[in-house]
Amino acid sequence: MSNGDGRVAGKVAVVSGASSGIGRATFELLGREGAKVVGTARREELLKEGLEEVERHGGEGIVVAADLEQSGTAEKVVQAALDQYGWVDILVCNAGVGWKYGEEHPGTMAALHEVSLENWQDVIGGVDLQGYFELMRAVLPSMIEAESGAIVNISSMAGVTGLYDAHPYTAAKGAIVNLGRSLAITYGKQGIRTNTVCPGFIDTAMIAPVIGAFDDPDTAAALVPMKRPGKPEEIAAAVLFLASDDASYVNGSTLVVDGGCTSRSFAG
User: Fold this and answer.
1) Which of 31, 103, 121, 154 is the 20 to 30 A CA-CA neighbour of 3?
2) Radius of gyration over every alpha carbon of the chain, rounded to an integer in angstroms
């Protein structure tokens, strides 16, 4: 299949957190499937590696090194896309924190009685929720004008189920799910679809502190019915579907991609 025949051929896609993990896999897949991709993250050298991979498969795009926790950054990213290509068809909000962040910022992945206000604000007021809000707010005017667009937000299975700890994280992920539903019913009238993907355990640097649990077969089976973590590419495939015209009547949905974790009432 040539790049021009891809499932998102001719569309312009902005992807946050595009330097690694799910974001990188999504950035590359959308590029291979014909989209002009605009990737943003803090690490420019990794963004450029992803862009080189897109170009190697015949795609095109640009990268914007930026920290979405900084005020005004979302507008900068969207404006770069508009300046380069004139419009934005697809927005994938993916940049966020995980278990590794808890090691670097003690308390942010704790239970509520152990969480300080600063811990809470680091997650809720940082890239995990506020970054999504700012990116969506920045892209909506151009999508409203065009009366067309697809927003895909990456949440977590912890956005639809509870956890024993990581309460700021679960609050942020749950908010992303319901904000997506709200945008779907508000802007669906203007041709803008909003959907959410909720990954389970995905083998990325973000959950590196806990991924070793899968080395034990019994533990792996207790964690996931499919007995393994997912791959970033498996989440990217779900994003591609929701971003493409194949999902033209899918709006306000929450697609859980977790190997069956949230489908059972108890481990076994």
Assistant:
1) 154
2) 18
